[in-house]
């Protein structure tokens, strides 16, 4: 790879049109700025990226307050599912994969991790502690929650997966995502 190829890849291709409306201002700024790297040749680009254009990463981040404001909005009813519990109670929830997509759109820098998996002493249930962290341009915040599933209940995946999905959704609710569903259940 030619010297400076990585810098040219990171900075991107040079714009073809004028960037400023006043040519004299452009000349004054050009004398103060470092020269822009030349674009990558096709051979250099193929060697480094396998022929795939680099994904844009500039401008994805938002201040944490904006991320939380977006997550606090009501989730459309078309994304909400209802499950009938054994006691006859209808429970509204958002599937974990939909919650994941919403986080990817509104908080692309989010991260999540299983913090602990705990089996009950009698071996009849499993609990998972999950942490969701949101990264904004100005701060980061995390929330943890637990989910518990019966070991005997093997419908719809294994008990650890169910407990993890429940804990993930609850941690997201603590950040505001889908929180309105908990308030609706109370009324």
UniProtKB/TrEMBL annotation:
Residues 39-48 have a biased composition (Acidic residues). Residues 26-59 are annotated as: Disordered. The gene is LOC100842020. This is SnRK1-interacting protein 1. It comes from the Eukaryota. InterPro entries: RAD52-like. One of its GO terms (molecular function) is DNA binding. Transmembrane segments: none annotated. One of its GO terms (biological process) is double-strand break repair via homologous recombination.
């Amino acid at each position: 790879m030619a010297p400076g190829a990585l810098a040219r890849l990171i900075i991107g291709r040079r714009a073809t049109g004028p960037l400023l409306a006043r040519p004299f201002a452009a000349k004054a700024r050009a004398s103060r700025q470092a020269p822009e790297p030349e674009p990558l040749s096709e051979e250099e680009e193929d060697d480094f990226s396998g022929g795939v254009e680099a994904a844009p990463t500039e401008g994805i981040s938002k201040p944490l307050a904006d991320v939380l404001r977006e997550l606090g909005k009501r989730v459309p009813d078309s994304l909400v599912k209802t499950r009938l519990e054994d006691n006859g109670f209808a429970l509204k929830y958002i599937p974990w994969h939909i919650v994941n997509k919403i986080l990817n759109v509104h908080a692309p820098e989010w991260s999540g991790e299983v913090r602990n998996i705990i089996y009950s002493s009698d071996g009849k249930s499993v609990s998972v502690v999950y942490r969701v962290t949101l990264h904004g341009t100005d701060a980061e915040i995390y929330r943890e929650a637990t989910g518990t599933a019966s070991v005997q209940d093997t419908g719809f995946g294994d008990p650890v997966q169910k407990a993890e999905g429940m804990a993930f959704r609850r941690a997201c609710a603590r950040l505001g995502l889908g929180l309105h569903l908990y308030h609706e259940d109370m009324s």
